[in-house]
Write a structure and sequence with these properties.
six-stranded mixed β-sheet; Carbon-nitrogen hydrolase family protein; 27% helix; 26% strand; alpha/beta; Nitrilase/N-carbamoyl-D-aminoacid amidohydrolase; 7 helices
């Protein structure tokens, strides 16, 4: 089974209406290139680090502009549209960093809430505390589509291999990592992390990214890419501004890669013992 996939690179601003229009334009272009699955980046709806500013444009699922636009696009273009994520108001007053997958008829297949919160202190004073704003998800998800089984993750999730392994063992053939990676961490780790997740699970990986300097002042790394199960980068974008990367996905390559290196089958349970020198009578 083969299909054409696209990763949409954006530089989302603080206005969801404009971001929805930009998303629609790019998704239509990807569909015109033959893509039947199109993924957008993390925080498609708004890249806004000012919390009051974010709260001012926040909506629940029923009234969110990105959600309704994605549904309309899926229906209009008869494709699968995967909103990498957008901020969604929850009934308890908290916020979810939530991804959405829509079927060609416009129906919602599933959602995924980002599990791991980006709480870090980087060099040069760059610091982030996503847990202060977002409620983490607690459920991994695999969606069975007509052309492949799709596993979900968002951005910082990529640093937690057990999530991807769980999805691969459950049958995921295509892993997804929509993101808004910072430039600092992206330059150091983005490609190597994505390729590692693809290689160690023998799966395709599709990562649509935010790219460039945003209205709120943050800078994201870009370099959206699609990677095959052997770790080869099939398509990649640059580090700033909009882009569309497209690649043909041959799901049979997943079976071939896992046949050559069957590490999913070869994994074994084990125990861990911590040994101290004093306990073994070894002199310091």
């Amino acid at each position: 089974m083969t299909f054409k996939a696209a990763a949409i690179q954006m530089c989302s601003g603080i206005d969801p209406e404009k971001n929805a229009a930009d998303m629609a334009r790019l998704v239509r272009e990807a569909a015109s290139q033959g893509a039947v699955y199109v993924q957008t980046p993390e925080m498609t709806g708004a890249v806004q680090k000012d919390r009051p500013g974010l709260m001012a444009v926040l909506r629940d699922e029923a009234s969110d502009r990105i959600v309704s636009t994605a549904q309309e696009l899926a229906r209009e273009l008869a494709i699968h549209v995967h909103v990498g994520s957008t901020a969604i108001a929850l009934p308890d007053g908290k916020i979810a960093n939530r991804g959405f997958l829509f079927a060609p008829g416009g129906g919602r297949i599933c959602t995924y809430d980002k599990i791991h919160m980006f709480d870090v202190d980087l060099d040069n004073g760059e610091s982030w505390r996503e847990s202060a704003v977002y409620r983490p998800g607690g459920e991994a998800r695999v969606a069975e589509l007509p052309f492949a089984k799709l596993g979900f993750a968002i951005c910082y999730d990529v640093r937690f291999p057990s999530l991807f392994r769980t999805e691969a063992v459950a049958g995921a053939e295509v892993l997804t990592v929509p993101a808004a990676f910072t430039r600092q961490t992206g330059e150091a780790h983005w490609e190597v992390l994505l390729r590692a997740r693809a290689i160690e699970n023998g799966a395709f990986l599709i990562a649509a990214a935010q790219a460039g300097v945003h209205e709120d002042g943050r800078e994201t790394f870009g370099h959206s890419m699609i990677i095959d199960p052997w770790g080869k980068v099939l398509a990649s974008a640059g580090g700033s501004g909009e882009a569309i990367v497209v690649a043909e996905i041959d799901v049979e390559q997943v079976k071939a890669a896992r046949g050559k290196i069957p590490n999913l089958k070869n994994a074994r349970d084990f125990t861990l013992e911590t040994v101290t020198a004093e306990a073994k009578g070894v002199a310091a």
